[in-house]
Amino acid sequence: MSRKEIKGLFFWPILLLALSVVLNLSLGSVYIPTEYIFTAFFSDTYINETWHYILMDYRLPKTITAILVGGGLSVSGLLMQTLFRNPLAGPFVLGISSGASLGVAFLVLGSGVLGGLGATLLSGPWAMVIASATGSFLVLLAVISAASKIKDAMALLIIGLMFGSLTGAIVSVLSYFSRAEALQQFVFWSFGGLGHLTWTGVIILLVSVIIGLVVTIASLKSMNALLLGPQYAQSLGISLRKSTFLMVLATSILAGSITAFAGPIAFIGLAVPHLVRQIIGSSDHKIMVPSSFLWGSIIMLLCDTVAQIPFSSMTLPINAITSILGAPVVIWILLRRKNLLF
Amino acid sequence: MDFATTKKPFILKKYTTTQNVLTASNISIGYNKKSTKPLILAEGVNFTLVPGQLTAIIGPNGSGKSTLLNTLSGQLAPIDGTILIDNQPLAEVSHFIQSKYLALVLTKKEFSQHLSVFEFVRLGRIPYTNWLGSLGPDDHHAVARAIESTQLTELLNQKCGTLSDGQMQRVAIARALAQDTPIILLDEPTTHLDLVHKAQTLRLLKNMAQHHNKAIAFSTHDIELALDLADQMICVTERTITMGSPDELINNGVMDKIFQSDLVRFDRKSKRFSITD
Fold first, then answer.
1. What is the CATH code of the structural domain delimited by B22-101+183-277?
2. Is pLDDT at B1 greater than 80 in this prediction?
């Protein structure tokens, strides 16, 4: 692919991303004129104290969160699809999100059991990220070790689903024994949402996503080799152990930290890489990874804009919107291509 | 990422036709089992792969052709004996160094169907690229040469998922050529092909061995075609492996006994098998 073609592939999504950011910042329950958004960023004049507060402390963190969540989930979906050579792989299907919820459940619901000391030690946004990433990492390792024994991709998906229901069961047991306030906190988290992050939360999420992306970039070469299948990849000098570990690590950091802050968000990780494959003609991960991130963040911003139901005070759960948009996309690709290929 | 795969000077020796690039001395092949004693398919096997020669690995179903090929490619350790690759024991050579000696052509379709032919062939250059896998002028040159010698120019932008079996076999061979190794091992490259495409594939392998001075070994069920084209043959039958030129194997009666069955008969004169009446 020539340099000019590559520029063309990135020009439109970047432009679209910029437009989506402006749209996402302008629309919400309170009307703020679009011109004001530009003045708020590029001049010091305060036109309206309330608008400024809404924009800077609510909408802007939410917009940045949407970009990180959409982009990060899409990249982790792509990592999983390449690693498992399976078009249906994604953070959700393989039980990674359930692993993350298990980690959070242990933290939120278990801290009551541990008593006051445990609660202070385990509180704070970093603890959420670590608990959630650890949970997803452990579940992913369990799925991987099952995958090394079972070659059948369908069996693997079933194992992923089983891990999902297993973690679900453990969460139910935990919630049965926990205090009402802790349970409420967990239930709110599990609804998913982008709008409740403070600036500190956004910074922590940003750092985690950047770390996840750096590990992904370090795996680009082995991801490309894995497109040929594991046997070819090994014959090309790629260490399967090391590359599998790095890809699992990247996925757990990305999906784990995102799930810690935004709750389990469905379909983005599964659907976006497929959508990107339809748009760009290349399988090269040096193009697929940034494209998936860009398109994932655009779609997440648009989903969030829809979920806000502009000019009304209602907000729909983001999880519902991503599923309502995501499921038909997968069906559409299936119908159009007759098959969903890795 | 494999840190070992970053660019460092690696000069491969130029091989003359008399040197052995791969030597198997006294190896036993089979599978190590945890509880019972190992399942041995053949023992005391000796043979060499020589640059410029096309070697066919033949034998009935289940005799151990794939096991032998997997052992030669280092994916399966021999139960006994040593395999030397350029005079170093294969077991001590890292995957990374091995990737510059040995290229594989596999029949299993585990690759992404979205890969274009061009991308598939380019991935053969991975052992020579930096940590990002970017191709340099040498790499582009090797890819162009591999595409030219397999006549794939018209198919370059097609997705691998849309190719016929014969075309895909050529793409897989081009990838191995791009990897630029002295040895190429192929796992049943002629299966699922019609007679013309079988002949085309074997002719291509023969040309590659002769003109690029490569040691090429392939497993096959097309014994008659292999007898016509191969320089040497490795015949894998129950617990024994015999090696020789096609004529040697015919004259010392190996071909007569290869299938222990009354259903087929080998005719030495026409070098063909036929069904007994």
1. 3.40.50.300
2. no
